[in-house]
Amino acid sequence: MSLLEVKNVTKRFSGLVAVNEVSMNVEEGQIVGVIGPNGAGKTTLFNCIAGALPPSSGSILFDGREVAGKKPYDICQLGITRTFQVVKPFGSKTVLYNTMVGAFAQTKLLHEAEHNALEVLKFLHLDHKKDVVSKSLTLPERKKLELARALATKPKLLLLDEVMAGLRPSEVTDMLPIIRKINETGVTIVIVEHIMQAIMNLSEKIYVVNFGKKIAEGVPHDVVANEEVIKAYLGDAYVATQH
Amino acid sequence: MKQLLNQKPIILLISALLLGALFALPLVVTSPALMQIFILIILYAYFTSTWNFVGGFAGVLPLGHSAFIGIGAYTSTVLFQTFGLSPWFGMIVGGLLAALVGVIIGLPTLKLRGAYFALATIAIGEGMRVLFENVKQVGPFKINGPSGISLQLVESSFMDFQFDTKAPYYYIILIMLLLVLLLTYFMMNSKIGYYLAAGGEEPEAAEALGIKVARYKLIALVISCFLAAFGGTFYAQLMLYFYPKSILGLDLSFEIAFIALIGGRGTILGPVLGALLLRPVSELTRIYLGSSLPGLHLIIFGLVLIVVMRYYPTGLVDPIKKLIDRFIHKPAREKADDLSNPS
Amino acid sequence: MLGIIEALINGLLMGSIYGLTAVGLTLIFGVMKVINFAHGSILMVGMFAAYWFVKLTGLNPYLAILVVVPLLYYFGYFMQNWVIKPIFEAEKDVREPITVIIVTTGIWYVLDNLSLLLFGAEYRVVKTSVTGKIFEFYDMYFLLPKVIGAGITILCAIYLYWFLKHSKMGKAIRATSLDREAASLMGIKQSKIYNIAFGMGCACCGVAACVLIPFYYVYPTVGVPFDIKAFIIVVLGGLGSIPGAIIGGIIVGIIENVGAQFMASTWTELLLYGVFLFVLLVKPSGLFGMKQDF
């Protein structure tokens, strides 16, 4: 049985179909990538899985349990935690405070939450910033904090929404081993990106969506060779360069 | 508790001295009028501290806190007048009633944008005043509409919550305030405090981390209403006379919110600081200028609020704390400067 | 029966004036997502301005519109620019701008008590050429200034609606209220739009103030009941919706006037609070509220 099973999920916004009959399977321990050009519906798909938006139809099974239409906090308690593309730190609070908010998902006790949060921060090499107020962090640090907070909830499945967007290439190369390291601790990861390279060497399996529809799936090597994917990506890229 | 005591010795010493001075105050101050001013400062600090549970930590702006204070005053008083029930019990009943009203307002509004909550609380505060002004009697309970209630005078006794001198009132409200501050401290340093702060600041991110934001806000509101009503009972027993305009309605609600914002909402000592700053202004202008320049103290309130929000949007606790820190650690001053001004 | 129809029409007349003040409130909210708690005080300022205009010049009260409306527009414009903007900017990333809300309450306090200090607490009336005149219609009697006032406010509301839909500035205002960032990417200067929206919101109060003067008392806290009613109206009609504010205003006016046929006026006030709570419980987005504004 797959850890996450998305079956024919559709999301409509008054007339516009943002996600159209998308299905995907994520096995335990995998890193799965979801790619597609901007506006392809990746984040909407994510929002459906994480509960921020109820899907219009279709089903989402996590650990064999239906989670479609459940609230974000219930889904988080079941073991799925997501990060946001536009990072949303609790700006007036310190890095440690932010991470402890995540850690409280597993405990009621202050010292235990603090202990677990510090561990996560150490793991992500963010512990030297623990007393810094989060709104004064740099973008890569904020992205890391977003990760730390999500990890502190001890999720079985981590949904990463463009954690690398906005980072410089050198910062992206810093981020990749971190994500791999998280996966090695047993956390299954679904990662959404629109930069292909970043996701290529991370993911075991890739889903490609365009205009809300899944156009390809498979191992990275096959997916890049897929004609439709090339068309979607290069076509889009050409249009983008013309602007 | 361990954390509470885990402070620098000098701070502990100063706090202990301050507490000692507070408890010794009635031994030194003999003028009942002056005592009354001290009692009112502490009472307003108490009101504002109960406000702080919602307004400070849950990230919404309650502008009708007087409704809950009024419920407390009316409940304990009518129960005392009608059945001779000790106001101490009436206080609990009032607290429960206030909490119930809090749930009724909070359930629909706390899920919405904060503006709805602010509007709903204003309407509740005013609605409650109009209601009490319109009603002369409910069943056996006389509430006398706009003319209000004079408490039946009895002999000074703890059970009846009436005393000949000011000192007992002073100690009661001082202990009530200290207990609420202690509760605030424990809440801030617990899961519920973290969850409230998170939900107040970024509700979407908080929900993604497993927090039922609306429910935690509701819990905070219930605690706040319950304790605010206690303050209402205290007010009734202290004044022995109150009427809808004095204890319900906008003026009291706004004064509480102003005290909180000027002192520093969401901090433990903000309400105390705010009350210390604003209450004397209000008492002094009322005593000396009340007849010649009506409303002057309210203009001062408004202006102070606007100026403080402009330059210290988080309230005056932070800048004052920094000032005190400097005073205590004079030798380490330069180092502290380096830390507080990261380039 | 005739009495009830008369009350109904009276409610409609008064309600449209309430509606216009609420339009100002909802316009400011729509653009800035801030409730201007000083709205009633702005109305009070407008009423005093109109009062002194008529008292000192002896001119027709409706001519005061030409003076009071620009006055309040710039009053609002500069109040936003000098007092509210710096605080708003500091808080613009915050989802719930509490500091700004409380500052508008501070402005309310300052304005109301300043006018208490300047003009005293007494109720003032000014005798104008229309004061006390009666308008007769099928055996029903209405105060002429109420009828004229309602006519002017309805015209104003229609003009404002047209302005927002079709003029360039109106489109910029609507774009800003829908999506601040996108609008500023399109080259719309946000702080200017905020100033203008605030000014226009206050100008609505100016119109309402001038049409109220011939038949209503002026006193320092005259704004408070209007303020509270405007709050009820915007929730009833849906925060941010202009037609909602007008219709909400009319509903409130009708409840108040028809209710007064059956109960004491203080009870109708209570009835309004009841309706308000009911709407909050049953349909918090109001009659015309947009869902994303939650």
Describe the structure.
The complex is a heterotrimer of chains A (243), B (343) and C (294). Chain A has 243 residues and is α/β, with parallel strands linked by helices. Chain A has two domains: 1-79 and 158-243, P-loop containing nucleotide triphosphate hydrolases (Rossmann fold), CATH 3.40.50.300; 85-154, no CATH class. Chain A has nine helices and ten strands. Chain A has helices at residues 42-50, 72-78, 95-103, 110-123, 139-152, 169-184, 196-200, 220-225, 227-242; strands spanning 4-13, 16-26, 31-35, 57-62, 65-66, 80-82, 157-161, 188-193, 205-210, 213-218. In chain A, β1 and β2 form a beta hairpin. Chain B is mainly alpha-helical. Chain B has one domain (2-311): ABC transporter involved in vitamin B12 uptake, BtuC. Helix content of chain B is 73%, strand content 2%. Chain B contains 16 helices and four strands. The longest helix of chain B is centred in the middle third of the chain and has 27 residues, at 213-239. Chain B is globular and about 55 Å long. Mean pLDDT of chain B is 89; it is low at 335-343. By secondary structure, chain C is mainly α. Chain C has helices spanning 2-32, 39-57, 64-90, 98-119, 144-166, 168-178, 180-185, 190-212, 223-237, 242-259, 265-282, and strands at 134-137, 140-143. A two-stranded antiparallel sheet of chain C has the order 1-2. In chain C, α1 packs antiparallel against α10 and α9 (223-237) runs parallel beside α11 (265-282). At the B-C interface, α5, α6, α12 and α14 of B face α3, α4, α9 and α11 of C.
Major beta-sheet overview of chain A: 6 strands, mixed
**Major sheet size, sense and barrel closure of chain C:** 2 strands, antiparallel
Global shape of chain C: globular
Determine the oligomeric state from the structure: heterotrimer
Offer a few descriptive terms.
heterotrimer, A: 243 residues, alpha/beta, Rossmann fold, 2 domains, 4-stranded antiparallel sheet, 10 strands, globular, disordered C terminus, B: mainly alpha, two-stranded antiparallel sheet
